[in-house]
Amino acid sequence: MVRYPVLLALAAGLAACAAPQKVGAPPRTAVPARSTTLNVKGLEAVLGKSARDLERMFGQPRLDVREFDARKLQFAGSACVLDAFLYPEGSGGAQIVTYIDARRSDGQSVDRAACVEALRK
What we know:
Elements: H1 3-17, H2 51-58, E1 63-67, E2 70-76, E3 81-88, E4 95-103, H3 112-119
Antiparallel strand pairs: 1-2, 2-3, 3-4
């Protein structure tokens, strides 16, 4: 019997954490924060660049996935696979690369800067 007051208190505490939603309001979309990897040597060649810049640097992407205002371009070579994630800069701004991920074809992690260099034309 002692468990019920504890469960009620826990449920009330969790409910207080939930943000109220307006009825009929569109869902909020999270805008990614500016990447904290901008200072990593070797990544400055791609972070902050447009899709066109990446295509000039790496050629035609293997994948071009668009979802709402986000875009993922994937470039692949014998050394690695590079995923570049582009989001609008500011409200209604042009899409720029805010994050990159790199891996080998077997899925093992690869140094992102080394992958960028390996894939450059």
